[in-house]
């Protein structure tokens, strides 16, 4: 699918994997809406790539709608990349046998709301706009790429909320792809492994920590680069025969219990 001259939306697009996806989509000629909470970084990136920034909290339907509307003003919306997400680590129960020490339920709900419900909300709204596009010669009207995690399969101790949310993203890939096949919109999901993003911090200590993490990767023995994830995003957007698939991009890692 040719996205030159079309518009695209990347949630969580101001940094990390999302930023790399924004840059690579723009390099393919797409007008990209950077949908993020980080206004300073998002606005600077959008200006750099010739796109637009829309402040989006993915738990707010009206803000997602605003991003979709903005995208359609830039060109036919052909691509959505759902990269916004958060993490949370806490064991299911505490050590003292008290109900109050069990996993924070509000934290669990927040992770689900952002990572899973927010992803689905963006899918349903963007796909609605895509359904009104004129079909391309291939019959396509658009493509959606969701970001899950290897935690959907190899969830570690303390990752109940995060793994639940990402497992939900994996689980909805096929049914949503089946729903949207009727209008020529493809849906695929990427499950990243350990990726070098700002979440790990900066400095000598951070670099040593990342190097230690990288030792657990089968090959190569390092963290993945955002550009390596973004290249898969581009493949899933542009390859017209990729649909309803979940692809691990993880260097072969299988996460241990902790």
UniProtKB/TrEMBL annotation:
Record family assignment: Belongs to the short-chain dehydrogenases/reductases (SDR) family.
Keyword Oxidoreductase: yes
Any Pfam family the entry gives: adh_short
GO MF term set: oxidoreductase activity
Keywords for the protein's UniProt record, in alphabetical order: Oxidoreductase
Coiled coil ranges: none
Name of this protein: SDR family NAD(P)-dependent oxidoreductase
Domain of life according to the entry: Bacteria
């Amino acid at each position: 699918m040719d996205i030159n001259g079309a518009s695209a939306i990347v949630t969580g697009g101001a940094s990390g994997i999302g930023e790399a996806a924004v840059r690579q989509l723009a390099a393919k000629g797409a007008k990209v809406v950077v949908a993020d909470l980080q206004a300073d970084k998002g606005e600077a990136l959008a200006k750099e790539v010739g796109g637009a920034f829309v402040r989006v909290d993915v738990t707010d339907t009206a803000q997602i709608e605003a991003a979709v509307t903005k995208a359609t003003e830039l060109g036919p919306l052909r691509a959505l990349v759902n990269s916004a997400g958060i993490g949370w680590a806490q064991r299911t129960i505490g050590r003292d046998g008290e109900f109050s020490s069990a996993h924070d339920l509000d934290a669990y709900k927040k992770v689900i709301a952002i990572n899973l419900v927010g992803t689905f909300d963006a899918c349903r709204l963007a796909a609605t706009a895509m359904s009104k596009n004129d079909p391309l010669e291939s019959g396509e009207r658009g493509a959606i790429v969701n970001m899950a995690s290897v935690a959907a399969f190899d969830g570690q101790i303390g990752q109940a909320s995060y793994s639940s949310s990402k497992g939900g993203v994996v689980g909805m890939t096929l049914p949503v792809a089946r729903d949207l096949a009727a209008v020529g919109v493809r849906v695929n999901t990427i499950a990243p492994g350990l990726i070098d993003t700002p979440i790990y911090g900066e400095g000598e200590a951070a670099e040593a920590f990342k190097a230690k993490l990288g030792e657990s990767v089968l090959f190569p023995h390092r963290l993945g680069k955002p550009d390596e994830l973004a290249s898969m995003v581009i493949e899933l957007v542009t390859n017209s025969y990729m649909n309803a698939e979940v692809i691990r991009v993880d260097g072969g890692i299988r996460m241990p219990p902790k």
